[in-house]
Amino acid sequence: MPLSVLSSFVWSVADTLRGPYAEAEYGSVILPFTVLRRLECVMGLHRDAMAEIVAEYPGEQQRRTHLKVATRTEDSAGLSFWTTSAYTLKKALQDPDNLAENLIDYVGGFSSNLDVFRSFGFENVIRALDERDRLAQVARHFARIDLSPDTVSNADMGDLFENLIYRFAESANDGAGQFYTPRDVVRLLVDLVYAEDTEALRDRGTVRSIYDPTVGTGGMLTVADEHLHALNPDASTALFGQEINPRTYAICKADLLIKGQDPSNVRQGDTLVVDKFEDRRFDYVLSNPPFGTDWKAVESDVKNEHARGGRGRFAPGLPGVGDAAMLFLLHVASKMRDVDHSGRGGKVGIVLNGSPLSNGGAGSGPSDIRGHVLEEDLVEAIVALPNDMFYNTGIATYLWILSNAKPAEREGRVQLIDATGLGSKLRKSIGSKRVEIAENGRDAIVRAFASTEDDDAKVPVKVFNNLDFAYWTVTIERPLRLRFVCTSQTISAVAEHRTLGKIEGLILALESFGDEPYLNREKFNRELGKHLGDRGLRLTAPQRKTLWLTIGVHDESADICVHASGVNRGKPEPDAALRDTENVPFGWRDHPQSHEALKQTVQAYFDAEVKPHVDDAWIDWSKTNTGYEIPFTRHFYTYEPPRPLEEIDADLERVVGEIMTLLREVES
Q1: Burial class of residue 652 (count of CB atoms within 10 Å of its CB; 0-12, 13-18, 19+)
Q2: Which phi and psi angles does 46 have, rounded to 5°?
Q3: Among positive and negative, which fits the CA dihedral 5, 8, 10, 15?
Q4: Distance from the CA of 41 to the CA of which of 216, 410, 470, 612 falls in 20 to 30 A?
Q5: Residue 205: left (phi > 0), alpha (psi -120 to 50), or beta?
Q6: CA-CA distance, 440 to 476, in Å (whole number)?
Q7: Which helix (H) or strand (E) holds 413?
């Protein structure tokens, strides 16, 4: 049965709920019943063996061990969960007067490792359905659905769970799609992460760990697991995940239990607050963190971890509080397994929006985070996806592929792949998703990634050195040149000033100047002293500076103002209004290896690009900062000249002619 048909059939129980339940409540009923029915179908053929083992062995560990042996098949590692209850949905329905108690007994009989129904509050769901006279109808609906593994594979079941989550979020108007990563995106991400390891994954005795810190219903883990077993059916995988949402956590945990995975490897909690796998590193890390989510609610926890320095995930820097994407980037980078003696390390695939590529200037938190992953040589490739790929947004999205054990030919390099032109239009949109990457497009992207060369035949590719994304922000100063004239306008400005206007006698002193212009500040200062002295006035140094800035106006013909004291005595004062910054690429000259080489490179850029245009400018070396940005779009920009004016004029004349024809028809 196609996913869309199965999903619609499962969700059609909403017709039964309509009335006693608000639309936003449908999912709270449908999701746990779907999980229960899937578990029931998985246990179906093994209920007799399960009952015998439960009766014979009192301890959970004994039951688990014997049950796995008794239920193991060529395609399954065996079940590690059970129920002590004899009920099924069908059997519970045979006693309609006690249906609620029967179902509660059924769910309460599951082994302790299957505690997911508490996350759904399922006992309350059952009692509420009973009170609203809908329990029997809902139970009968789900008892008719065949969710056995022979009918619905693990991958299809994962798709079904995520489709139901999407429908639930959409009906509740609760950010539909934030838990749901389209399968075409997941498959591409997994293909890219595995691309360089394909041969190694086929080896006998292959054991790999896969982790998703924003696991949702476990869709990424499912695809990654099945892909690996398609390469090597004998491979052993350990799946790990952390999830903040209780419903999706419960679905993921149940799904992994059915696959024979250790359910304790799925843990509930906010990844940014507490890393539930703090002591573990993984072979593969996959993640699609929510787009544009702020981290205000966890700000103190994140900043405390940042303050711990090298011991914290967020030590390299903090992004703006409005977007947590780069915090997840730092987290996944920290979860790669260490490189072993054979040179094998960890790989990361993470979905991000365009913000982490270039937000924040030199010296900012986002720039420092980019600097960290580039300087540590962790970024292997970034792939730009077509727009309209996701269910809840049409914005530009990117796949970042990280590795702490790059092949020699990739060391010190980053590959940018522009896959924006490889989308295929869907026949029918799903939310904001109007485009998918079909299998041929996915294959083309993976081939382009594997080539490590510029400009694949089908996919635009560019390869850069890590330092090509680095630059210095240099502050360019120009001297302060002021002209002083005590006109009625400037004197009025002094009179209205909140501090100068309160100095008694100052206005009369300024009025005694006349309208003679002063092009030298020191000369004006001496004259000012005389005029003030005649009236018994003295100004403090801050008051004099405020007066200069209030009366003085910039004039290129005026003398340069110089510092009168301190370490800069005799040197020009900078004019804050003329201050500018220049971004100097590391690659403008050979990449410098020392502080002195840095100064020489920046000075050479200044002499060639700035000095010829503003001869009196200089560099304030104390304000020089290092920055990092990855201007992806700029590197793939292709200039398209505007249409010839003749064509535009012809189109305008044609449109005007059509309008005039319509007007004449109306008039006639």
Answers
A1: exposed
A2: -115, 10
A3: negative
A4: 216
A5: left
A6: 51
A7: strand 413-418
Nearest Cα residue to 31 out of 54, 10, 4, 1: 10
260 exposure class (CB count in 10 Å sphere: 0-12, 13-18, 19+)? middle
Q: Are 291 and 325 a contacting pair, CB within 8 Å? A: yes
User: Which residue in the block uniquely carries the two structure tokens 């290896």?
Assistant: 593
* CA distances, 589 to each of 165, 474, 598, 608 (Å): 53, 16, 10, 12
Please state, in angstroms and rounded to a whole number, the distance separating the CA atoms of residues 109 and 122.
Answer: 13
Q: Cβ distance 472 to 583 under 8 Å? A: yes
Tokens 């996350």 sit on residue: 119
Bridge partner residues of 368 (DSSP): none
| pLDDT value of residue 19 | 87
Strand partners, 532: none
- Where does 564-666 show beta strands of DSSP type E? 580-585, 618-628
**Residues, the chain, total?**
668
- 476: which 2 tokens? 């360019």
Distance CA 271, CA 87 (A): 38
Q: Which H or E run includes 353? A: strand 347-353
Q: pLDDT per residue over 307-326, tens digit each?
A: 988 778 999 999 999 999 99
Q: Which residues of 26-35 are buried (b: 16+ CB within 10 A; e: fewer)?
A: bbbbbbbbbb
pLDDT digits (tens, 9 = 90+) for 620-640: 998 989 999 999 999 988 888
Distances (CA, A) of 597 to 211, 594, 600: 43, 5, 5
Please tell me the distance from the alpha carbon of residue 11 to that of residue 31, in angstroms, as a whole number: 9
pTM above 0.70, yes or no: yes
CA atoms of 333 and 354, how far apart (whole Å): 18
Structure-block tokens of residue 9: 């059939």
* CA-closest candidate to residue 216, choices 177, 260, 261: 177
Residue pair 381/192 in contact by the 8 Å Cβ criterion? yes
Amino acid at 468: D
What's the token pair of residue 376?
């540590």
Amino acid at 486: C
